[in-house]
Each structure stands twice: as structure tokens, then as C-alpha cells.
Amino acid sequence: MRILIIEDEKRLADSLKALLESRGFTVETAYDGETGAEYAELGIYDLLILDVMMPGLNGYALARQVRARRCAVPILMLTAKSEVLDRIEGLNAGADYYLTKPFDTRELLACIGALLRRQGGQVDTLSFGNTTLDIADGTLACGDEKIRLSAREFDVMRLLMQSGPHNLSKENLLARVWGYDSNAVENHVEVYVGFLRKKLAAIGSDIRIAAIRRLGYHLEVPGGQQPPKK
């Protein structure tokens, strides 16, 4: 899961990043509202953690801007502003939850878990055809056969499983797995798709990672789940 932290207090942002990365999340940070808005509008994040009091574009304005782009990503606001009217303004701006500083990290993690579950983002396994991806231990399983995936293989396979028969572009995979500012190129996606094809074959999976020129990749089972017609 990919989380964006937008917080102008760099020490706090970096400590939150370290905490969430230790829990298995992929985390990126922005230290001002304008940069945060540019990141958020890429549409590659599963959750935004957003400070309210920032110079320039504050958290309320940023949330409104994100929602105006019809981006439905969950937003968790972190702020020292604890008055009822502040909470109302935050929720009306588009936040899904409003957590006041100082906060207990256990409550923060519980809020994150709740918001991701509400979006369908946190599940134990993903399945397609006769194959299951275990989210907790990063393994692909088919019957009694299992194989462990590398971190990149896992991220690519998770996105393919979530998209199922729907095409997922190479550009989308690059942004969501390697990050929008990465030096990775489309060949990196092709290489990891190749790795996954070999591992699927090794466990006897009936999944096929199909490629469609200029449209990307999707999963299919010959004679079974197929992509939608264009």
C-alpha cells in the first residue's frame, strides 16, 4: 500500500514515514501544500496523511482541491487545531478522519487500518483463477505449491490481482510500484512481468499475464475470466 504524507514539519513527517515503512507500507513525503497537491493528484496513493497548518496551500484547501479532481483517495488530517469548528471544516473539505496532535501512534495506525479497510485496500489474500496471493507473507500459492515473491514482484502482482481482467498500463505500474519520480522505465515492468510468469508456471497456476499493445497487462484464465471488450 502506498501512502503520501504531506507535513511541513520535516522531523514529524520523517518519523511518521519511518513508522509506517516499518509496518510494510510504501511511503512518500511532501513538505509543503503545493508539492503535496501535485503528488496527490497523480492518483497513485492508497491514503493521504495531511497536515492542516501549512504555509501557502493549507490542508483544507489542499483537500478541497483533491476532491475537486474527483480523487476519492482516503484523507486523514493531522492537526493541532482541535476545536469542533476546525473538525467540521476539515470534514467538509473532504477529510475522512481528523486526528489531533499530539496523538498516540496506536490510534494513528488504527485510523489508517480503518480507512484502508473501508476502501477495500486491506485484505489478507487476493485470488484469481486457481491462484492466491498472500498479502501478509508475500507468497503466491496454487494448491499445495507456494513460491515467495520479491518486494517488486509482490507489488506488481498485487496490482495485477486487484485489476484482474481489466487492463493496467505500464505507466500506471511504473508510477504505483516504482514511484512517479523514479528513473525506472517501461522495460523494468516487462522484466518483472517476465519473472512473475516464470513463478506462476513453477507453481502450476492457470493464470496468464496477457499483454495488449499500448494498453498494458491484465490477468486471464484460458477459457475462464477474460478482459472486457473495448
Written description of the protein model:
- The protein is an alpha/beta fold.
- The protein is 41% helix and 22% strand.
- The strands form 3 sheets. It has a 5-stranded parallel sheet with strand order 2-1-3-4-5, with helices on both faces.
- Helix 3 links the parallel strand 3 (47-51) and strand 4.
Secondary-structure-derived class: alpha/beta
Task: Report, as a whole number of angstroms, the end-to-end distance.
Answer: 29 Å
Q: Major beta sheet, specifics?
A: 5 strands, parallel
Taken in chain order, the helices and strands follow as: EHEHEHEHEHEEEEHHHEE
Contiguous runs where pLDDT drops below 50 for at least 5 residues: 225-230
Number of helices: 8
Q: Strands, helices and their partners?
A:
Elements: E1 2-6, H1 10-22, E2 26-30, H2 33-40, E3 47-51, H3 59-68, E4 75-79, H4 84-93, E5 97-100, H5 105-118, E6 125-128, E7 131-134, E8 139-142, E9 145-148, H6 151-163, H7 170-178, H8 186-202, E10 208-212, E11 216-220
Parallel strand pairs: 1-2, 1-3, 3-4, 4-5
Antiparallel strand pairs: 6-7, 7-8, 8-9, 10-11
